[in-house]
Amino acid sequence: MHADVAAFDGREPLRFSAIITPHRSLSLNGFRWLMLVLVAVSILVGLGFILVGAWPVFGFFGLDVALLYWAFRRNYRDAEISEQVEITDSSLVVRKQFPRQPPREWRLIPYWVRVELVEDEELETCGPLWLVSHGKRLEIGSFLSPDERRDLAGALRRALQAGRASR
Question: pTM for the complete prediction?
């Protein structure tokens, strides 16, 4: 997530701007190495099973590697999700980009927007982060960790408050 203040379309000063993306700890190169090691281990162990006469086990090792490959590829595709939040004095714009879909955009009037984040003090976690306006709710940052959602909620509240104070 990054936030900065700059010009928005050259008309109004930007009070808040953030691009939110999911965190991925394994790089693409790391993924390739992991898959290479998994394939090598599966082949070696599978050959051992073939030598003792348990040849059907070899197929299951291949199936395990294929399922892990599919799961990681799905994970990397989900990493293409992004959300952009921009706040000016007259508009709050949320753009969501999903893999293989056109971007979706919501425009709200910042004066009427409330940031809602439900905290669970007992479990030391928080629920979803909502932008609420006129009885409608828009969830943002669903893929963020609880600490990142708290930070984003605080930054959004400060930006909205600063916009209200300048009126």
Answer: 0.69
